[in-house]
Write a structure and sequence with these properties.
- The protein is an alpha/beta fold.
- Helix 16 links the parallel strand 11 and strand 12.
- Helix 5 runs parallel beside helix 11.
- It is globular and about 90 Å long.
- Bound molecules: CIS-heme D hydroxychlorin gamma-spirolactone.
- CIS-heme D hydroxychlorin gamma-spirolactone binds next to strand 2, strand 3, strand 4 and helix 10.
- The site of CIS-heme D hydroxychlorin gamma-spirolactone has 27 residues, from strand 2, strand 3, strand 4 and helix 10.
Length: 696
């Protein structure tokens, strides 16, 4: 009997007296015995123990109690930030040794593959929110090195909203759902966020980034990652070199556009995690290069901004990246909860040779992470959960506490001690020692003057973008502020933007329908206009053309030419891309030659937002039928509005007309497959954008 049928027959398992009492779901074959958590084999998993057939349930039914109790505790408090995340495993391999700069083995031993766990996340949404929220993506990397765990708990944006950790609570409270009403979640498009942002000039640079297309990535495989802060590398002699960490995706960067993000949120809220899981599952392992920006005290002193200020970056054109390694993600998690949910990153997880700086944001983070994990994971022993265990021996005098899993032996759990010869001892020679930093001065609660410029790099970022990207930033500000009910907040934010550039402020004001003069907010340090743009900050200037791992949606119906679809699929496969068939029925379509074209998606469940480019492969009858089908018209219309390359058979023209498609360089009707592939490989048709939406 096929496996499926067996399972269906065995699904019902009520146990009535007088029916022989034979249980269907018994162990045997490939099915192991079911046990309780203490290893006792369970005889009946579907009926609780009762005093009689219709009598009260007995307290001695420990199977019922254990099963229910476990269920009651199947959720733990979710992360207050970065609650929605997705983990993948792989390795980090060093390709260029930093010997002499650091004593961290993970950065000096070329060729060693260090096991790694990476968790990508959004920041503000709750665990069940959508992947495509406009948001920062967390990019947290745990390396299980030979010297203990090293976590780079970074983001996909190189700067942050605030300069001092004491403001983190305010940022997060303003961004998350409003506390009285409990909404909106997973978005900053509401009054409290913009109220806070408009009163927090130091957030302006970061606002430019989150209003840019960086905040709506096409795939987690196509985002950059950053350690954000300036860290230290420390060598054997105790000499320190400053470092900033960068992850560079091998596939290059790509984003969706905002209307697509909104629609993907409805069509597939798990779009990013599904994409990542599938890629790893299919052996298309995502890969990043690790780049470092290394600099000394002299560079730091001469640089225009304070390197301890996390709202600033060092342009690559000023300080180029040195590529030192690669990160390969090649294994999906075996259990989402055990690994992705329970992984507990901490900025304090560093190894000898890597150290902190005085960045006040980093200093505050060093307090928060472990504190968070203790509540979230239920106590101080969360490091004993497998995903958190280092891959090296752990030996110390910590004992007991909630969920102690490690069985530490002996009577000595203190130091100094003399009673036993095998208890752990400190080792100054190889242990972690902090960099000997010289400090003097008054103890004060102040912000350094050198942190005072909040607008220059915001302008630098904007000026570094292509015109298309700049338009998207303006549109995003307009969208977000349009969701703010309080007019004064909208106006205040526009006044802040006027400090970055009067033009930006005016464009946003126009889009909001604001009238009257824009008065810039008060500032002590006006934006510098002399900073050279940095091409490295633009997605489009750095985009790598090609179809590798991209997905093309192909619309078919009864009467479609199967040979044509097959030829396209083969050509796409050779280019490293995938064809997904969308048909009016999930059972597929009967092609002109009588064969069955099996569907990957039913039309309503496979909107064109899920694909990078589309092909409409209809016969004349198919096109006539689908021209009056709203889902088909929307499918083509959206592809056009989202600036996608559209290939089509000549017979599909009526559907293209019904969808309002206007011929341009990205609409290829009746052409060769090779031309479709070449054009689709270039990405979107940006020149189409002014024809499909208003640019302010
Ligand atoms: Fe944080 C989680 C990244 C500032 C306090 N943070 C968290 C995660 C990432 C970041 C990626 C999720 C890790 C995971 O996947 O489990 N955080 C950042 C970056 C920051 C930053 C790049 C600025 C440069 N964070 C920051 C500050 C504080 C925190 C200033 C508090 C003072 N962050 C936390 C936390 C979290 C956290 C509350 C929540 C869940 C967790 O730690 O494990 O402790």
């Amino acid at each position: 009997m096929p496996q499926d049928d067996q399972n269906v027959e065995q699904a019902s398992n009520q146990h009535f007296i007088g029916e022989g009492g034979e249980l269907h779901q018994t162990a045997g074959g490939t099915h192991p015995q079911m046990t309780d958590a203490r290893g006792h084999v369970i005889a009946d998993d579907e009926n609780s123990l009762k005093a009689n057939t219709r009598g009260p349930v007995l307290i001695e039914d420990h199977f019922l109690i254990e099963k229910t109790q476990h269920f009651d505790h199947e959720r733990i408090p979710e992360r207050i930030v970065h609650a929605r995340g997705y983990g993948v495993k792989g390795y980090f391999e060093l390709t260029d040794s930093l010997q002499g700069i650091t004593k961290a083995k993970v950065l000096t031993e070329v060729g060693v593959k260090t096991p790694t766990f990476v968790r990508f996340s959004t920041v503000s949404g709750n665990m069940g929110s959508s992947d495509l929220a406009r948001d920062v993506r967390g990019f947290a990397v745990r390396m299980y090195t030979q010297q203990g765990n090293w976590d780079i708990v970074g983001n996909h944006i190189p700067v942050f909203f605030i300069q001092d950790a004491i403001k983190f609570t305010d940022l997060v409270h303003a961004a998350k759902q409003e506390p009285d009403r409990g909404f909106p979640q997973a978005q900053t498009a509401h009054d409290t966020f913009w109220d806070w942002a408009s009163l927090t000039p130091e957030s302006t640079h970061m606002l430019m980034w989150i209003m840019s297309d960086r905040a709506i990535p096409r795939s987690l495989r196509m985002i950059e990652g950053f350690g954000v802060h300036t860290f230290r590398l420390v060598n054997e002699e105790g000499k320190s070199t400053y470092v900033k960490f960068h992850w560079r995706p091998k596939l290059g960067m790509a984003s969706v556009i905002w209307d697509e993000a909104l629609k993907i949120t409805g069509a597939d809220p798990d779009y990013h995690r599904r994409d990542l899981w599938n890629a790893v599952d299919e052996g298309k392992f995502p890969e990043w290069e690790l780049g470092v920006q290394l600099f000394d005290e002299e560079f730091a002193n001469n640089f225009e901004f304070d390197v301890l200020d996390a709202t600033k970056l060092i342009p690559e054109e000023v300080l180029p990246l040195r590529i030192v390694g690669r990160l390969v993600l090649n294994t999906n998690v075996d259990n989402y909860f055990a690994e992705t949910e329970q992984v507990a990153f901490a900025t304090t997880d560093v190894v000898p040779g890597i150290d902190f700086t005085n960045d006040p944001l980093l200093q505050g983070r060093n307090l928060s992470y472990i504190d968070t994990q203790i509540t979230r994971l239920g106590g101080p022993n969360y490091q004993q959960i497998p995903v958190n265990q280092p891959h090296v021996n752990v030996a110390n005098n910590q004992r007991d506490g909630h969920m102690t899993m490690r069985k530490q032996t002996g009577r000595v759990a203190y130091s100094p001690s003399s009673l036993e010869g095998n208890n752990p001892r400190q080792d100054p020679a190889t242990g972690f020692t902090s960099f000997k930093a010289y400090e003097e001065g008054d103890k004060l609660r102040v912000r350094s003057e050198s942190f005072g410029d909040h607008y220059s790099q915001a302008l630098l970022f904007f000026n570094s973008q292509t015109q298309t990207e700049q338009n998207h930033i303006i549109s995003a500000f307009i969208f977000e502020l349009s969701k703010v009910d309080t007019k004064a907040v909208r106006m205040r934010m526009v006044s802040q933007l006027a400090n970055v550039s009067p033009t930006i402020a005016q464009r946003v004001a126009d889009g909001l329908g604001m009238v009257g003069e824009i008065v810039p907010a008060h500032t002590r340090v006006p934006a510098r206009t002399d900073l050279a743009p940095s091409d490295a900050l633009s997605i489009l200037k750095k985009m790598k053309p090609g179809l590798k791992t991209k997905v093309v949606g192909c619309l078919v119906a009864d009467g479609t030419d199967a040979a044509e679809v097959l030829a396209l699929e083969t050509a796409l496969g050779k280019a490293g891309a995938e064809l997904k068939i969308v048909a009016p029925k999930i059972g597929g379509a009967v092609a002109a030659d009588g064969s069955l074209l099996e569907a990957d998606f039913q039309l309503a469940g496979g909107p064109s937002v899920l694909f990078d480019a589309v092909f409409v492969a209809l016969s004349a009858d198919g096109a006539a039928m689908l021209s009056t089908e709203a889902a088909a018209v929307a499918w083509v219309h959206d592809a056009f509005a989202h600036l996608k390359v559209i290939g089509a058979t000549s017979a599909s023209q009526p559907l293209l007309d019904a969808a309002g498609v206007v011929a341009d360089e990205g609409v290829l009707v009746g052409g060769e497959n090779s031309l479709f592939l070449e054009t689709a490989g270039k990405g979107r048709i940006w020149a189409r954008e002014p024809n499909v939406r208003t640019i302010f």
